[in-house]
Specification:
Blueprint lengths: L10 E3 L2 H8 L4 E2 L12 H7 L6 H16 L3 H16 L5 E2 H4 L3 H10 L7 H13 L14 H15 L6 H30 L9 H4 L2 H11 L5 E6 L3 E3 L2 E3 L4 E5 H4 L42 H15 L3 E3 L33 E3 L9
Parallel strand pairs: 1-7
Antiparallel strand pairs: 2-4, 3-9, 4-7, 5-6, 8-9
Helix pairs in contact: 3-9, 4-6, 4-13, 6-7, 6-9, 6-13, 7-8, 7-9, 9-11, 9-13
The chain binds protoporphyrin IX containing FE.
Amino acid sequence: MTVDPPAVPERRLIRHADVRSVLADPRFLVPAAPAARPGTGMAWLRGAVSRFSNGAEHGRRRARVTGMLGALDPVRLRREAFERTGAELAGGARVDVMARIARRVPVGVLATRLGVPEDRREEVVAAVTAMAAAYHLPPASGAAPAGDAGDAAVGVLAVALGDGEEPEPGLLAAVAGALIQACDATAGLVGNTLVAVARLPAGWSAGWSARWPVEALLAETLRWDPPVRLTRRVAAEDAAAGGVRVPAGAVLLLDLAAANRDPDVFPDPDRFDPGRFLPGSFDPGGGGPLSFGSGIRPCPGERAALALAAGVVEAALAHRLAGPPNPHNQVPYKQIPHEQVPYEPSPNLRVPAHLYLEGTATTEGPR
Ligand code: HEM
C-alpha cells in the first residue's frame, strides 16, 4: 500500500514569538473533527468538544467548559489530591506512581467534582484513560483511529453522569473533553516534576521544599520539560508565520517545548531553575512559557491542573524515589541517566512510563 504525502508539508515553528503569534492569530485554526451522529462514541465526542472546533461553535463549547472549571475550588482539588496520594503510598511499600497515582488521582478527584458519583470513580478513571488514548486525530490522515475501547468508554461516562437518564450531550462532551485533556497531561506534569527533583544536585532533592514552593517547581518543570510538546494549526487562508509565507491549507507544527527554551525569553534556557518562578523573579513581558498554550484558546484547565499536580507532587515527594524493581541492581533514580527514564510512546506527549516511590512519609501535609 502506498500513502500519498500531505499536499502541503508541515512547517515547524520553534521560536517563542512565532509560536505565540500563531496561537493568537484567527487565520490559524485547529484541525477540526466533523460532527457525527449523537451516541456514536469517540467519533461523536471528537465532533462535539471544544478542542477540535473553531469559530463561534468553539466559543460556545469553550464557554461551557470554562464555566464548569471556573466553579471548581483549587484548594479543595489540591487537598483531595494530596490526601488520596498519601493514602496510596501509606505503608511505605514500593509503588509505581505512574501506574497507580499520576492519572488515577487527578482524574478521579476531577471526575467526582464534575458530577461523577463516588462509587463510579474507578470505572470512570479507566474509561477516561481509554478515551484519552483514542482522542487525538492522527495527523494528516484525517481519519479517526479505530477505538472500540474508546467508544465503550464514552458510554461508561454517560451512564455515570446521567444517573439512570441520558445526560445532556453538551454536558457529556464538556465533562469528557475536560477529563480527557486532564488525564495524560497532568500525569506528565507529575512524572516530569518527580524526575526533575530526583536529578537535582546532591542534597537538594531532599531539601527542595526549603528552597522553592511546589508552585515554582511545577512552573519550571512545565517550562523545561512540558508534558504537551506540540500542537498544530492549519492556515484557513494565505498568511505568514515565522517570516515565511504560509499558503491556505498548510499545517503548522508549533513546538511548545522548543519555544519554552528560547533564549530571547528565558536566559540560560537549558538550566532547570525553579528560582525563575519565585514571586518577583520572573518578568512575563515576553509572554511566559507556552506549556498551557496561549492566545485564542489556551488551556482552560491550567488552574485545576496546577492544584491537582501540587497535591500529588507534595505528597509523593515525602517518599523516596527508587530505581525500578530489580533484585540484582537497586539503583536509585538519581544514578540513572535522563535518557534512560522510560517514557510512554507518543508523538506529542512526554509522560514517564514508570517511576517508583517507597518509604514512609517524611512530611505532614500541604503548607
Ligand atoms: C499539566 C496539565 C495540562 C497541560 C500541560 C495542558 C495543556 C494544554 C494545551 C497546550 C492546550 C492547548 C492546545 C492548543 O492550543 O492547540 C490545552 C487545551 C485544553 N485543555 Fe489542557 N492541559 C493540562 C491539563 C488540563 C486539565 C486539568 C484540564 C481540565 C480540567 C484541561 C482541559 C483542556 C481543554 C478542555 C482544552 C481545549 C481548549 C480549547 O480548545 O478550547 N487541561 N491544554
